[in-house]
Amino acid sequence: MERKIVQVNAGFNITESEDIRKVTLKLAMPSIVEMTMQTLLGFVDMAMVGSLGAIAVAAVGFGDTPIFTLMAMFAALATGTTAVVARHIGANEFDSAKEAARQALIIGILAGIVVSALVILFASQIVSFMGADETTRPQGIKYISIAGAAMVFLIISVIMGGVLRGSGDTKTPMIANGIANVINIAGNFLLIYSSAAYVIKIPIINIELSLFIPGAGMGVAGAALSTALSRLVSCFIIMCVIYFGKTPIKFSFKDKYRINPEIIRRIFKIGFPAAIEQLSMRFGQMFYGRKVAMLGTVFYASHRIAITAESISYLPGFGFALAATTMVGQYLGAKKPDMSEKGCYESVKLAAIVMSIFGVVFFIWPQSFISLFSREPEIIKNASKCLRLVAIGQPFLAAVMVFGGGLRGAGATKWVLYSTMIGVWGVRLLGTYILIDFFNLGLAGAWIAMVVDLVVRGTLNMHRFRKGQWKYLRV
Are 219 and 60 in contact (CB under 8 A)? Predict the structure, then answer.
C-alpha cells in the first residue's frame, strides 16, 4: 500500500495512520529523556539538601513552590506560541512561524526581567505567605532570592523551548537541559558542601585513592546558586541554537524585533487561558502545600519528598502530552483533523500504559523510592503512605496530562482551565481541608483529595476531547 507523506516542517515528516505510533514516539522520546534528566536533577537536589536535615528540605520547598508557580504560568504562555507555530508549520508557512517565535522572545525577555525583580524584592513576604516558621524562614528567603534572580533565563528557555517543540524540534531543549543539569549537579556538590578529602577504595586491586574536593559550604544558598547557573546555561544554549544552529525556526541579528500586536494577540488568545489555568492550579497547590505545612515540619518534609519521588511518573505523561500538542497543532494546520485525533489517542494510550506500570511499582515498593531522599524513619513512613495512595491515580494522571496537551495544541485552552479549577479548587483543596479538619486524616487526607482530583480532571478532559469541538477552532 502506498504511504502518503505530509511535510510538516523543514526537518520532520509526519506520516499517515500506519506510522502514527512511530511519529508519537519520535516526538515524545526526547521530551521524556529531557524530563528524566530534570527529574534526576530534582532527585539529586533533594538528596543533597536532604542530607542537611528537615529544615533545609522545607526551606527549599518554600522557595521552589512559588518559583514554579510563576514558571508554570509562562510555560502556559509558551503553549500559545507552540500552538501558533505548529499551525503555521503544518501549513508550510515558515515565515509566519518565525515571526510568531520572535514575538514570543520579546514577551519572554520583558516578562522575565519584571518577574525576576519582583521575586527578589518580595522574597521575605513570599516565604512568609507559604507558611514558613522562624526556623525555616531565613533559609527559605535566601534560597528564593538567589534562585529568583535567574527567573529571566528560565522564562526565556521555557518559551523558546515551546517554539522549538511546535516546529517538531524536541531534541534541542533536551540537549540544553541535559547539559544544564550536569552543571547543576556538579555545582551542587561544590557549592552546598565544604571542602573535604575523600578516600576511594578500588576493589580487587586493593588500591586506595585520596581525593580532595573543594567546596564553598553554602548549604541551601549553594543549591540555589547552582540552580540559577544551570538556568543561565540552558537559556544560552537554546538561544545559540536558534541563532546559529540548524533548526526549522532560525533567527538572525538582522531580523526586525518590533512588537506585532496581532501575533501577540493570537499567542495570548491561546496562552492567556492556559496561563490562568496554570496559575490557578499552582496557587491551589500553594494553598494545598500551606495546609500540609500546618501539620508540622516533619509532615511537610515527608510531603515534599513524596512529591519528588512521584515526579518520576510525570516523565511519560509530560513527553506524550507535548507530542499530542505538536501533532494536534500541525495536523490541524495541514487540514487533517482526523490524524490529530488519532495522534492524541495514541499518546494517551502509551502514557497510560507506562504510568500505570509506575503506579504498580509505587504501590509495592514505596520505601525504596523514599529512602533515596531521607533516612529518617518518620519521613519514610509518612511519605510511603502518600506514594501508595497516588499510585492508584496514575492512569487518570495520564488522561489529565495528555488530553490536556491535545486540547492545548488545538487552542482549546479555556476548557482545560475550567476542568483545572473544578479539580484543584473544588476537589483537591476543599477536600484537603475537609479531610484534615473534620476527619483528622492528616497527611493521608491531603493525598486522598489529590487522587480524587486526578480522577475528576482526567474524566473531564477525556469527555471534552471526545466531543471533537476543538477540531474547528481557529488560532
Answer: no
What angle (nearest 5°) sits at the alpha carbon of residue 76, between those of residues 15 and 414?
Answer: 85
pLDDT band at 133 (very low <50, low <70, confident <90, very high): confident
Rg of the Cα atoms in the chain? 22
For 40-92, write each residue's pLDDT tens digit: 666 666 677 777 777 887 778 777 777 777 777 777 778 888 888 888 888 88
CA 161/CA 164 separation, integer angstroms:
5
Say if residues 215 and 195 touch (Cβ distance below 8 Å): yes
Give the Cα separation of 264 and 273 in Å (integer): 14
State the Cα–Cα distance between residues 361 and 357, nearest whole angstrom: 6
- Phi, psi for 230 (deg, rounded to 5): -65, -35
Query: What is the dihedral angle through the alpha carbons of 167, 170, 176, 178, rounded to the nearest 10 degrees?
Result: 170
Residue 395 burial (CB count, 10 A): 18
Q: Which amino acid is at 380?
A: I
Determine contact, residues 373/47, Cβ cutoff 8 Å: yes
Residue 196 one-letter amino acid: A
Tell me 2's DSSP state. P
pTM of the predicted model as reported, rounded to 2 decimal places? 0.76
| Cα gap 409→412, rounded to integer Å | 7
Instruction: Report the 10 Å Cβ neighbour count for 137.
Output: 17
Q: Calculate the alpha carbon distances from 92 to 13, 95, 210, 331, 334 in Å.
A: 12, 9, 60, 11, 8
CB 400 within 8 A of CB 457: yes
* Cα–Cα distance list, 311 to 39, 41, 308, 317, 355 (Å): 7, 11, 5, 10, 11
Q: What is the C-alpha to C-alpha distance for residues 68 and 282, in angstroms, rounded to an integer?
A: 8
Q: Facing residues of 12 across strands?
A: 9
Q: Quick check: helix, strand or coil at residue 209?
A: strand
Pairwise CA distance, residues 50 & 40, whole Å: 15
The amino acid at residue 363 is F
Do 423 and 343 meet the contact criterion of CB atoms below 8 Å apart?
no
Burial class (CB in 10 A: 0-12, 13-18, 19+), 442: middle
Q: What is the pLDDT of residues 255-286, one digit of tens each?
A: 888 888 998 888 888 888 888 888 888 788 88
